[in-house]
Design goal:
The complex is a heterotrimer of chains A (232), B (252) and C (421). Chain A is an all-alpha fold. Chain A has seven helices and no strands. The chains are: A mainly alpha (232), B alpha/beta (252), C mainly alpha (421).
Chain lengths: 232, 252, 421
């Protein structure tokens, strides 16, 4: 892509992209840390995670301001316009992801019980998959790669399935250990949060696809199996 | 969508130098078609072919076919004066005649014998000025010279003058370049209203203006028509990379 | 060099430049002023004449109207005036011999008989009475009274002899010598006698010539300029025409006189020495000037006006005649007036077509023989009589006056009609 005749325009756009990348990296880390906090029961960690969420919120406001500036000053057209609008949407999704991660961290305070291995494993796997998708889709954003975005869009199904398994494991645990219903309930919410994070990553994938091609991805989002608990 | 004007294989030479290369472009009836492109790309040259204003320049040679309602306007049997009765033009710098406001608008109908009598002429003048959104501002001073109006008013007077002979097509060559933003906004509103009556083709340097007022846009570069599309498509997601580079200011 | 030094240097350079400009203008104005001074000082006296108060006896018997009771104008006009006028002239001063009688008579202008007759015609109730009339003096006495003749040179080199000088001094003492406004200068035609010579014929002759010049040259020049500027194709033929027109403007005016002589008088047999021929010759001369001025004005009309007219469906002819030409009018008119002013002052071509003849009558139509102002100046400047010197200067004053008026008119017309577009 050729450079703009006005150099500062290019600089503005690249700062915008970098800010998204930074925000995305932070969000990724939050998911990782929150999951770790849950699985290892480390309480000090939780406070750190909660504190860091402020940073994500700041970045969202920053991106909003950049977008408004771009529109005021540059009246962007075509691809530049799509970049600007996409950055706005993606920052919204990332901010929600941040909040969901913070929520998982907070809830982990109430899950001090030792978790069965199978629960740990599925939640861990789901979290890894979400982090991976998020990373992939943010790379796709930076590299303007529609193919990777489409791939991520298609693979949300896997996350849904993992979450499904996880929630079933937890409900079984609740049936066995009636004393641990409260913490188990928190676990259910946390699973749901992970699933929603996956959806937000899929949103970002749609935005990136639109950014690069100018069109919407065709078809309905592939969803996991239908289940009363996951509510699909 | 019916095409009022069909241009096929239009090439224009100024002496040895070629200014337009084999342009095919259609202008839809009662719609606004914008022509954009960097300086010297041939958009004005093309526009001026549509009412044969290029005939005025001796060394200018036009080849190809331009049909209006199916008739080739470059055919030998076509009378240029009658063509210009059907295809009017508004220029970049407002150029009202150094006569009164009334006479500016009545001149065209006068020489073409359109008005039956003085009352009819008064009607024509009033209607034209009303259509051009100028009547209220000048109705009490029709005898004052046209050149005494402000820039924006002068341009609307020129539009009234073009309308007075009841053309089918109105060509506008960067009509707002010399005007301030408020005058520009008034003219753009006017263009929007006029398109229900006339086919309009407008050359403009301002891409946001083209995006606002037109339904179809043609992008010219170095004498070639690079892309022609609905305005919506061309400005949101153009087919051609050069078009995108131009409208996003990446040209160089 | 420091900044202050550079500044000072620039200021002095500018001052020097300004002074040079003012100096140049001052020198030019100085010379013009000298000319005007000379002309005015010599010529201002031409507007007045010297008169001698003379007793005239309109005796009915001398007039041979004795038997007529109440004569009407016709009868008065056909009366015999010789005796009356002879008596009046010789009655100015006592004389002793025939030579002295001649001297006395010569003190009055050669026109005195006509003056006496006209007096009676205009004042018929003076019939039968003795009246004192201020008759025009001869040019010798006129010039003497105006101080143009030195008195202290030997008698045989003077125009007035001692006897005549004596009479003059006497009459002057008696208060019979007056200086009055000369109705001859402006209102009568040329004459051999300087004291009654006037420029009326020349003025009318010039007037007719200029009018004819205008009527012929303006439309032709306008159409030629419009054609060349707006319609002529850009090819070698047009270029040749253009070059020739520009050259014509530089052709010496006498050549046009030769043309007039050969074509108008020789081939077409038009009457020579008339304002008609003069006008046609002058129009040939003025054509290139007007064409060039008109073309420049047409060129100055911006193309946006033409485009505006064409775009509304005006044909080329309509565009040019309705829009371009009216806007080019101020420049064309001022060029025309300047061209006419030049034509007014032309002498050479008119000499060749014969407007140099001595013409006494004031012409009433352009086909009457006449002369023109500059030619009149030329003719009078060649005459021997002293009286013509002041007339020549006075005519120059008149001519300069007309030229100033015409050029001012050109400037005014241009300013008033110039339209902003």
């Amino acid at each position: 892509m050729a450079e703009h005749l006005v150099k500062s325009y290019d600089e503005q756009l690249s700062i915008l992209t970098n800010t998204i990348a930074k925000m995305g990296a932070l969000a990724e880390k939050q998911i990782k840390d929150a999951t770790e906090a849950l699985l290892t029961n480390d309480q000090e960690f939780v406070d750190e995670i909660v504190g860091k969420d402020d940073r994500i919120d700041e970045l969202e406001k920053n991106i909003e301001a950049q977008v408004v500036d771009l529109i005021t000053m540059r009246q962007p057209m075509a691809i530049d316009l799509r970049e600007t609008v996409s950055a706005m949407k993606i920052s919204g999704d990332l901010e929600r992801i941040g909040d969901l991660a913070k929520n998982i961290a907070k809830r982990s305070r109430y899950v001090s019980v030792k978790l069965p291995d199978n629960i740990k494993k599925t939640i861990g796997a789901a979290s890894e998959k979400v982090q991976k998708n998020l990373k992939l889709v943010l790379d796709a954003f930076v590299n303007r790669d529609a193919k990777v975005a489409e791939m991520v869009w298609n693979s949300d199904e896997e996350i849904d399935n993992l979450i499904d398994i996880s929630m079933n494991s937890v409900t079984e645990f609740m049936e066995r250990e009636k004393n641990y219903i409260k913490p188990a309930a928190h676990l259910l919410f946390m699973s749901k949060n992970l699933e929603r994070m996956g959806d937000h990553a899929t949103n970002i994938a749609e935005t990136v696809y639109y950014l690069v091609t100018g069109d919407d991805i065709e078809g309905d989002r592939p969803k996991g199996q239908s289940d009363i608990l996951s509510g699909q | 969508m019916k095409n009022k004007i069909k241009a096929k294989g239009v090439s224009v030479f100024y002496g040895e130098k070629q200014a337009l290369f084999d342009v095919d472009l259609n202008v839809a009836e009662k719609q606004v078609t914008a022509l954009i492109g960097p300086s010297g790309c041939g958009k004005s040259t093309f526009l001026r072919c549509l009412n044969r204003m290029n005939d005025v320049i001796d060394i200018c040679k036009v080849s190809g076919v331009i049909e209006i309602d199916g008739e080739n306007i470059y055919d030998k049997s076509v009378d240029v004066v009658q063509l210009r009765e059907r295809v009017g033009m508004v220029f970049q710098k407002p150029n009202p005649f150094p006569k009164s406001i009334y006479e500016n608008v009545s001149y065209g109908p006068d020489i073409h014998g359109i008005a039956k009598d003085k009352n009819h002429m008064d009607e024509i003048v009033e209607n034209s000025l009303k259509q051009a959104a100028l009547w209220d501002e000048v109705k009490d001073r029709l005898d004052e010279p046209g050149t005494g109006l402000s820039g924006g008013q002068q341009q609307r007077l020129c539009i009234a003058r073009a309308i007075s002979i009841n053309p089918e097509v109105i060509l506008m060559d960067e009509p707002c370049s010399a005007l301030d933003p408020i005058a520009t906004a008034k003219i753009e509103t006017l263009i929007d209203e006029l398109k229900s009556l006339y086919t309009i083709a407008i050359v403009t340097h301002s891409m946001s203006q083209a995006a606002r007022v037109s339904q179809y846009t043609g992008f010219f570069h170095l004498g070639k028509l690079i892309e022609f599309n609905t305005t919506d498509k061309l400005f949101k997601n153009p087919d051609n990379k050069m078009t995108q580079d131009y409208i996003t200011g990446r040209f160089g | 060099m420091t900044r202050e030094q550079r500044l000072k240097k620039r200021y002095t350079a500018e001052k020097r430049f300004r002074l040079m400009g003012i100096g140049a203008i001052a020198i030019a104005i100085f010379f013009v002023f000298l000319l005007l001074l000379k002309v005015f000082s010599t010529g201002s006296t031409a507007f007045v004449k010297t008169t001698i108060q003379t007793e005239v006896d309109f005796n009915k018997e001398l007039l041979e109207l004795k038997d007529v009771a109440n004569p009407n104008i016709e009868q008065i006009k056909s009366a015999e005036f010789f005796d009356v006028t002879y008596k009046a002239a010789t009655g100015l001063f006592p004389y002793s011999n025939a030579e002295e009688e001649k001297d006395v008579k010569q003190l009055l202008s050669g026109n005195y008989e006509l003056e006496i007759k006209n007096y009676l015609i205009n004042n018929p109730d003076a019939l039968g009475k003795k009246v004192m009339i201020d008759l025009t003096a001869s040019d010798d006495l006129d010039q003497l009274h105006k101080g143009n003749f030195p008195r202290d040179i030997p008698e045989d080199r003077r125009r007035l002899n001692n006897f005549q000088l004596n009479i003059y001094d006497n009459l002057l003492e008696q208060g019979k010598i007056k200086t009055v406004f000369s109705n001859y200068f402006l209102f009568s035609g040329d004459s051999r006698d300087p004291e009654i010579a006037g420029v009326a014929g020349a003025i009318i002759g010039s007037f007719f010539s200029i009018i004819i010049c205008l009527i012929i040259s303006f439309p032709i020049a306008l159409m030629a300029a419009v054609y060349l500027e707006e319609f002529a194709p850009k090819n070698i033929v047009t270029d040749i025409i253009e070059i020739n027109i520009n050259n014509l403007a530089a052709v010496p005016s006498i050549v046009f006189g030769l043309l007039g002589l050969g074509m108008l008088l020789g081939v077409f047999g038009l009457p020579r020495s008339t304002a008609l021929v003069g006008g046609i010759t002058l129009s040939l001369m003025t054509l290139p000037t007007i064409i060039i001025a008109c073309r420049a004005s047409l060129k100055a009309v911006p193309p946006s006006i033409r485009e505006g007219a064409l775009a509304v469906g005006a044909s080329k002819v309509q565009t040019v005649m309705h829009h371009v030409v009216p806007l080019a009018m101020p420049g064309t008119l001022s060029g025309t007036i300047i061209g006419l002013a030049q034509a007014l002052g032309e002498t050479a071509p008119l000499l060749l077509i014969g407007m140099v003849a001595f013409v006494v009558d004031v012409p009433s139509v352009p086909t009457d023989p006449s002369t023109s102002l500059p030619v009149q100046i030329y003719l009078w400047s060649e005459s021997a009589e002293r009286g013509f010197v002041e007339k020549t200067s006075a005519t120059i004053m008149l001519l300069i006056g007309f030229l100033i008026i015409m050029n001012s008119l050109a400037v005014w017309a241009r300013q008033k009609f110039e339209r902003k577009w």
